Amino acid sequence: MIKYVIKRLLIMIPILLGICFAVQLLISVTPGDPARIIAGANSEEWEYEQIREDLGLNKPLLVRFGTFLGGILRGDFGKSFHTKRPVWDDIMQRFPYTVMIATLSVALSVLIGIPLGIYAATHQYSWKDNTAIFLSLVCVSMPSFWFALLLVQLFSVKWGILPVAGIQKWTGWILPIISLALGYAASISRQMRSNMLEVIRQDYIVTARAKGQTERKVVYRHALKNALIPVVMTVGGMYGMALGGALIAEAIFSIPGLGTYTITGLSGRDYPVIQGSVLFMSIIFCLVILLIDVAFAFIDPRIRSQYVKKRKKTTKEAVNSAEG
Fold first, then answer.
1. How far apart are CA 200 and CA 15, in angstroms?
2. N or C: which end of the chain has fewer CB within 10 A?
3. CATH number of the structural domain spanning residue 290
4. Which residues form the domain of 92?
């Protein structure tokens, strides 16, 4: 298992390097000059050129890419072009808000999606199953940003129940979390329904029913734990997606998280902010996927048995080699 983790960590290095270079290339070809924005429309040409030199924008693409990587290796994400504050400090200040939205939205989606999927599977082909499928398709089809604006229009503008934006009160978290959670809950419920239908047709489930066990015990004690195994991978991937989806929710609801910080950097062509935010989110996403893979290996007995067989095989070969 340790070798597996080390191998995955090493694979992350070229992936992150590719992401960094892609971001560097995209911001270089995107229209807009941060030096011109900082200098202003009425500045002299020599002032504009001086700002470009101070920011290092007059250097070739590969040189700027190497400078950025060198700073990352020293733990320096650079400084914002506009605020002159260290990018790392700003990321650490804003990232907890993004984690809060992503964690709560995924947790809510699990609480909704898994019971809904089980309920639909245990009432297959009934109107209850059809209703659950219809609601899941509607929630999956709706873009999260459009659904967020719809929630604002309904609960904030029309009814005045919840705040339009901001998190001065705990009620400010409700709409951002719901706008992200329902789409994820729909995906979880669809997969949970499919997994449960596959599991309850297995022979050991038929045997459990033949022994006279109640349907509730068959579903929640025998079928559920096996049907949940594929959902673990789905939830892990959704958490990484939720970190990215939180960026949009933060912009819509004016939450001072990493999403608002990144969008502000994009609008101002603040290259260190853009590069640092994207790299940081990429690292977090890769680590989340790694943790989910490791957790999946512990949860699924089939994968654990593979590791045990490999260890026994290696030990047996070593013993035979010593005897020989």
1. 40
2. C
3. 1.10.3720.10
4. 87-315
